[in-house]
Structure formats: structure tokens, C-alpha cells
Amino acid sequence: MSHLVAPSLLSANFLNLEKDIMMLNQSEADWFHLDVMDGLFVPNISFGFPIIEKIRKATTRVLDVHLMIIDPERYLERFRKAGADVISIHMEACNNPVEALKTIRSLGAKAGIVINPGTPVSVLCDVIGEADMVLLMSVNPGFGGQSFIGTTMDKISDLKEMIRSQKLDVKIEVDGGVDLINAQILIHSGVDILVAGNTIFASPDPIQVIRQMKAIN
Ligand code: DX5
Ligand code: ZN
């Protein structure tokens, strides 16, 4: 599979979200990355069900919902009902990630497990078998527009080795500080899905940036 590009709508214009969604619908964006924050797991609060439901009505693209919330088990069914196609939960925010991943799959969504920059890949060892995707945070979650943390590169190789040794088909997504330069290195390192917020939405020509990100080979 060639890599996917997932614009993070955290950087979109919430005063005119429809315009940005229509723009993304015209673009080569594969997934819409939706960042849900609870003000506890991360020091910020973003948006929840009503916004996701509206976005669901405005696009047929895959909705990739990144839950930065404590005890995400409480809300998995509601996020699925709101329209999530991929639901990712943080390892650090969840008491029983294996059960939560199984629940996500039983709801008919793809299941992602996320780790923060400070969390080693090794914690995924007994969990990764239940996941369709691992999301590596390359910034400390909570805000868009931060700089990429370089040590993420070592974690990609560790993760690839874990996937290989367990003979799994698990996709790798990277989120935070992705730009057109590090995107190339990430793709060459085997990343399957690139999330990008600021790089896309702060550009005068987001469609062109998405096109350039898709064209990396
Ligand atoms: C950070 C979020 C990211 C963020 C990415 O907490 O999970 O998805 O919006 O934004 P950029 O690409 O601007 O770092
Ligand atoms: Zn995210």
C-alpha cells in the first residue's frame, strides 16, 4: 500500500469548517484525522460528538479519531456511532488496552493504539496483536503546530522490528510536527499514514501541500 495522508482538522478554521472540509474533499487527503481531547489526559480541550457527527455528514473519507481522553472505553460506542472509522486510544490513558481494542473491532471500526513520545515501543508487546494500527506521537499531545521530536525515528525501527517478529499486519501512523521534509524520511522509514495539521492548514495552498505529501516516493 502506498502511504496515506491524514490532515488534522485541529488546525482547520472552526468558524468555517464546511469550507475546509469541502477543500479536503477536493484534495488527495485519504483520512480526516480528528483529535479529541478531554482536558485531563492532555492540557487542552478540543471537540466531541456533535462536531464529528457533522463532519461525518460532510465527507465520505475515512474518519480517523484520535482519542486523547482518560478511560476511552467509556465512549467507544458513541464515537463509532458518531461516524468514526478508525478509533485510536492511548496506551497511557487506558487500564485494559487489549479489551478496549477488541471492543473497537467488535464495533466494526479499525483499532489503533497510541504511545506518547516518552513511552517506549516495548510497552506494546502484548497489545499490538489486537491492533490494526500503531500511532506514534512525534510531539507531546495537546496542541497543533509543535516541532517534530527526532527520537521518533528510533521508535519507528523498534516498532517495525516488533511487527516483523510477531508476523503482524499493523500499520504505522505518525502524528505531530510532520512537514514536507521529515515526511520524506518518515515514508522511507516505512510509515504508512502521515498526520499533518499546521503544515497543511497554515499553507496558502493546502491542496498542493497534500498533493506533494502524497507524491513522496
Ligand atoms: C496533537 C494532535 C495532532 C496535531 C498535529 O495533540 O494529536 O494530531 O493536531 O498537528 P501538527 O501537524 O500541526 O503538529
Ligand atoms: Zn492526533
Q: What's the helix and strand layout?
A:
Blueprint: E1 4-7, H1 17-26, E2 31-37, H2 49-58, E3 62-68, H3 76-82, E4 86-90, H4 97-106, E5 110-115, E6 133-137, H5 152-165, E7 171-175, H6 180-188, E8 193-196, H7 198-201, H8 206-215
Parallel strand pairs: 1-8, 2-3, 3-4, 4-5, 5-6, 6-7, 7-8
Helix pairs in contact: 2-3
The protein binds D-xylitol-5-phosphate and zinc ion.
The site of D-xylitol-5-phosphate has 22 residues, from strand 2, strand 8 and helix 7.
Shape: globular
Strand order of the largest sheet: 1-8-7-6-5-4-3-2
CATH topology: TIM Barrel
How can the largest sheet be summarized? 8 strands, parallel
Averaging pLDDT over every residue, what do you get?
A: 98
Order of helices and strands: EHEHEHEHEEHEHEHH
How far apart are the first and last residues' alpha carbons, in Å?
Answer: 12 Å
Provide the list of bound ligands, each named once.
D-xylitol-5-phosphate, zinc ion
Q: What integer value in Å does the Rg equal?
A: 16 Å
CATH superfamily: Aldolase class I
Q: Determine and state the CATH class.
A: Alpha Beta
- Counting DSSP H or I runs of 4 or more residues, the number of helices is 8
